[in-house]
Amino acid sequence: MGLEEINLIWLEGQDCAGCTISIKQASNPTLIDVVTGAIPGLGGLKIAYHPTLMFEWGEDAAKVLIDAMEGKYDPFLLILEGAVPDEAKAGEGVFCGIADYEEKLLTLSEAIDSLSKRCAAAVAIGTCASYGGIPHGNPNPTGAKGLLDYLGKDWTGGLGLPVICIPGCPPRPDNIVQVLGQAVLAARGLAPLPELDEWHRPVALYGYTMHELCPICGFYAEGTDAHGFGDAGCLGAIGCKGIITNCNNTTWADGYGGCTGTGAPCFGCTHPDFPDAPTSPFFAKAPAMPFIIENMKGMLAHAEMGFERFKPVLESLLPQIPEFIEELDKQMEEEKDKGRKI
Amino acid sequence: MGFLDKLRGAPKEEATAAAPGPGGEREITIEPITRIEGHLGVHAKLDTGAKKVTDAYAYSPMFRGFEIILVGREPSEAPMITQRACGVCPVPHGLASVNAVDQAYGVSPPPMGVLLRDFVHGAEQLYDAQLGVLNLEGPDYSEVAVKKFNPDWWGEAEKTKASRSDVHGFATIADIMTALNPLAGELYLRSLLVQKAGHNMAAIFGAKHPHVHTFVPGGLAKINLSASDIESYLTLLMRHVAFTKELVTATDDLLNFVLAQGYADVGAREINLCSVGSYNDPEAYSENYEDMTDWGRKRLVSPGVILNGELVTTDLVEFNAGVREFIGRGWYSSEWEQEVKTDPAGNEIAYEHPWNKRTIPEPGEYGKWGSKYTWVTSPRWNNWKGDGKNNVLELGPLARMWATAKAGLVPASTGSSLKFELPAAVIPGFKYAAKMEFEWKIPAKPNAVERVRARAYYHAYSAYCITGLVMQALEFMKAGKTKVWTPYEKPKEGIGFGAVEAMRGSCLHWCVMKDGVIHNYQYHAPTTWNASGRDPEEKPGPYEQALIQSPITEAGDPAAWKGVDIVRTIRSFDPCMGCAVAVHIGDRIVKRELLPYATPE
After folding, report:
1. In a 10 Å sphere around its CB, with 0-12 CB exposed, 13-18 middle and 19+ buried, how is residue B472 labelled?
2. Does residue A265 have a cis peptide bond before it, meaning omega lies within 30 degrees of 0?
3. Does A105 contact B at CB distance below 8 Å?
4. Measured between CB atoms, does A280 come within 8 Å of chain B?
């Protein structure tokens, strides 16, 4: 597969375009840097199809999808924003049509079924595309699911990679460009393949919980809890789900914002079960067990650390103990003699 | 069966049979309409001889079921969930929703909380206005589009001097068109970078954007509020103040030229408009339903319903009681139980009012223009204090500028225009530093051009309003009024209505709470009214009205028309559009040198 030129086929399913608005804010690199080939190794990327970006419309736009299905845009990365509904549940109707071509409506699932057979790799951007997100929320009226579920955990693309998920509602701007960038660099042999966890998230970005990376976690450590919005303190008591949510939103973009640092309790928008339990109700306390485990581990670890810190002091004192005893004996003798008069 | 198989199995002659020569009729289906947020298509009939649109149907082929997902949840989750309806304009959803929940819970934020919510809202309006004008609608009037679809305009544009080149720096109209070329044009690219300042401003008090996480009933979840937060916000705001001077003058020059090419009737419709207002008086806002009449009128962008050019009301309570949501041609059932008979002020509430209406999907076949054809319902406004008729109202920046200019409730309003001044801002990279006076005048009628112009002026007017609010925030800081949230006891039952302007229309939310959870939740996205289909009286929705009888200027063989005038009309409404960072045009490779402002800020 020649990889000098790689097309991006970006489909929008049951989406809100929020992931697109997020990527527009990326700084390291900016989307313009990527598309113009300003970054060595990342040149030759073309946005062949993106419903909110492209100049073409109507039939001309639909034709791009048809041509891609027939191989005219190989090699390409299939990118999905938004969830995939179950069209069988729509009966005669349609839950997500994406293009009209010669008087027929192309549904999202038809497009994915066809394009996933020839794409180099598939990337699900956002929680909806990854795991179903909001449309998948109870009672899931349209039978929505994410790409991971739709294509299956065993699916692999032309480059041998499974579906890559970048969850978040939306994901942080830099996270999106960086994962896409690494996928392209890896395809060209310039970078290692991104290591994925069991939810197909890149470990480098989603390896820790928001609680572990929280900018105000010191409040938790010292036991200062917020009991109302706007109170400076750990947000755990007012619903923060950072302890069960793998995320790195310490600041949003360019150093501004960030959920917990601003004062907004995390409600788990990167979590595979978002927006249902355990992330919902958003302002109810997170499950207790992670806190209990963390506290027990913390107590033991701190006890050990405390012991380690005082051990040298104790050890340096040990050889002096006989001398101390002698000295104490002497003093005791003196005490005995006190007050005696001959 | 895959889509390709479906295509191969179909006889082709049927599909293309409707393309006759000059003087005939032609049908065109445009789906997807790109450079918009979400999924929208148009099916239109064209008279190729008279060069005009004779009939049109606007439709959305995507359904997610938010209102069903919301039932049974804590009402405080609604501002977070409903923002996810739209990644381009999430904050008005969050704000209208949190206002509805404030009412249902019976709690209002401290003045600083009201102000900071509006800071987040204003920040979004600033990014969103330029996105619309320069990145989504602009490319339709760019050199690329004009040379392709209206080649006779180009020579004229090269000859026509731009009247405000002292501000924006472009010598001719053709230069402005070139600056709008997707991915390459100067205005197009600089707009994307100034927009980042809008997202950053929203993140300071919203934690992130899109989908801000700080909107809670009773206020805003912000800790350690300090004057430095407000200073950061103000610094970024001044970039918008500087940029809007170029944006408005360049847009004015371009659009005056387009109008002179005979574009006044494209996308025109009657003067039936509606605004619900924006930017609250922080000390007037309250959760009390009846107080809405007063604090609505104190908003810096005025509420107002305009019927046939006359301002009928500026009262939000009267507006709410007149809302009807007909199922129309939407793929839904219209059978539900009427549970709410009156509003908290005692006004009668109709069966079709969103406090009663339920969302019951009934998916139907695609392309049945004679029956149901869309996932959009048909909201209308009943003039219940007047003639009792249902009206098709257009929402958006044109409507709200019009209502504000006419209502005379704010200092900038003259009765026929909005007049205001923006301060000097000396910032490297921007072309015009001095202070500047703006005047937006009410145009003769709504049309494609005036909708875009109003959007540019709304950017300037928003910058003006927010600058004032920032000064007010500093006053509050000085006075020690820094509380951002009011504690509350959540009641078991409650009802609420929230309304605020999003860039492309009014965002309306209704919440009915029972047993402490959502019993019914309905919202109208800013595009719902504009994109609505036929109502039970067979009246087309605003997009459809604007298209029917609209002239076609596109050059070339009618059989090959791409419908540029149709998409210009639709995009003039800015249908909840997503962004337009990059466009692939043929084999064009854009060089790094063309991007002087592309370095991260």
Report:
1. middle
2. no
3. yes
4. yes
In angstroms, rounded to a whole number, what is the distance separating the alpha carbons of residues B193 and A257? 18
Task: Tell me whether A170 touches chain B (CB under 8 Å).
Answer: yes
**B162 within 8 A of B175, measured Cβ to Cβ:** yes
Q: Do B484 and A230 touch (CB under 8 A)?
A: yes
Q: Which residues of A touch B66 (CB under 8 A)?
A: 134
Give the C-alpha separation, B124 to B459, whole Å.
Answer: 10
Per-residue pLDDT at B60: 81
Chain B residues whose CB is inside 8 A of the A77 CB are: none
Tell me the HSE value of A150 on the side-chain side, using a 13 A CA sphere: 32
CB B513 within 8 A of CB B104: yes
Answer for the pair B419, B464: CB distance below 8 angstroms, yes or no.
no
For B151, other C-beta atoms within 10 Å of its C-beta total 11
Q: Check CB contact under 8 Å for A95 and B590.
A: no
Mark yes or no for CB contact A52/B34 under 8 Å: yes
Would you put residue B106 in left (φ > 0), alpha (ψ -120 to 50) or beta? Answer: left
CA distance A211 to B80: 20
3-state secondary structure of B404: helix
Residue A44 near residue A4, CB atoms below 8 Å:
yes
Q: Residue B266 is inside which H or E element, if any?
A: none
Q: Which two structure tokens, joined as six digits, stand for B292?
A: 């809405």
Residues of A in contact with B189 (CB under 8 A): 32
Alpha carbon of B308: minimum distance to chain A alpha carbons (Å): 34
Give the closest residue to A274 by CA, choosing from A95, A143, A146. A146
A96–B562 CB contact, under 8 Å: no
Looking at the DSSP bridge assignments, the partners of residue B325 are B379
Where is pLDDT greater, at B30 or B551? B551
* pLDDT tens readout for residues B416-465: 999 999 999 999 999 999 999 999 999 999 999 999 999 999 999 999 99
Closest in A23, A54, A144 to B34, CB measured: A54
Distance from CA of A295 to the nearest CA of B (A): 25
Q: State the pLDDT at residue A339.
A: 67
pLDDT at B91 over 60: yes
Distance from CA of B419 to the nearest CA of A (A): 32
pTM of the model: 0.92
Mutate to test the interface with A, among B82, B119, B211, B584 (most CBs of A within 10 A): B584
- H helices present in chain A, as ranges: 18-23, 31-35, 58-69, 108-115, 126-131, 147-151, 173-187, 203-206, 210-213, 217-222, 259-262, 288-317, 321-337
Nearest CA-CA distance, residue A309 and chain B, Å? 35
Q: Which residue of A has its CA nearest to B375?
A: A95
Complex ipTM over 0.85: yes
Query: DSSP letter at B140?
Result: G
Q: B77 to chain A nearest CA, in Å?
A: 6
Instruction: Render pLDDT for A79-90 as a digit per residue (tens, 0 to 9).
Output: 999 999 999 999
Cα distance between residue A42 and residue B147, in whole Å: 32
